[in-house]
Amino acid sequence: MTQGTAHIQPNGAKIAKTVLMPGDPLRAKFIAENFLEDVVQFNEVRNMLGYTGTYKGKEVSVMGSGMGIASIGIYSYELYNFFDVETIIRIGSCGAMQENINLYDIIIAQGASTNSKYVDQFNVPGYFAPIADFQLVADAKNKADEIGATTHVGNIFSSDIFYNADTEVTSKWARLGVLGVEMESAGLYVNAAAAGKKALGIFTVSDHLLRDEATTAEERQNSFTQMMEIALEIAE
C-alpha cells in the first residue's frame, strides 16, 4: 500500500477493501454523511472527496470518480493497484435507451459496451468485452428484488462523448438491446480485469433518451437512495 499518489492522499486514513464510486464527489459526501458511521475523510485532492466509515458494522469507503473513462481510469487504477482495494462498485446516473425503462428504475450493468479506445493499450488480438463480476451482479439483483426496486440487468453503453454529432447514436445502440448510456463503467471493468479485481456498475435512470423526461441535478445528487442502499448492502 502506497502512502499516496498525485491524485489520492489518505494521510494515514484507511481505505476499505470495497469502494463505492459515484461520479459526483458531492454524492460521495452525501453517502458518507447519511449512511456511514465513524466517518474519516481520506481524500480531498482536486476536491475528489473520499471517505471511509462503517455500514452495519462493515468497513466501506466511498469516493468520487469524476466524469468519463479517463477520470475513473486514473482513480480506479490507483485504488486497485496502489491501495489494495479489491472491489469497486460504481453508483451513478444514466440515460435510458429502452421504452420499458422509466425514471428512477435501476440498471445493473452486466456488460459495458463503449466507443472508448481505453482497452487498446493492452493490444489484445480482437475485441475485449468489459463485464462486471458475476457474483456482484447476482448479489445486486437479489438485494434489489428484496427491497422492491425496479431493475433491469444487461448491457450499458459507456460513451466518451456527451454531445454526439451522430444524431442516430441512441437508436443504433438501442437496436442491440443496450439499456442505457453513461460514461465510466467500461474503463472501470477493464481496470478490474487487468488487476484481477472485482467491479460492478449500478445506475439510477436520471433521464430518458427516447422521451422528454429528466431529473434535476439536486435529485441526482441526493435522491438515488435505492441504488446507494443496494451497493452498501452487497459491499464485502
Automatic annotation (TrEMBL):
Q: Which CDD domains match?
A: PNP_EcPNPI-like
Q: Which GO terms describe its molecular function?
A: purine-nucleoside phosphorylase activity; uridine phosphorylase activity
Q: Name one GO cellular component term.
A: cytosol
Q: Which UniProt keywords apply?
A: Glycosyltransferase, Transferase
Coiled-coil parts of chain: none
Residues at site: Important for catalytic activity? R220
Q: Which PANTHER family match?
A: FI09636P-RELATED (PTHR43691:SF11), URIDINE PHOSPHORYLASE (PTHR43691)
Q: What is this protein called?
A: Purine nucleoside phosphorylase DeoD-type
* Originating organism: Mammaliicoccus stepanovicii
Q: Mind giving the lineage of the organism this protein is from?
A: Bacteria, Bacillati, Bacillota, Bacilli, Bacillales
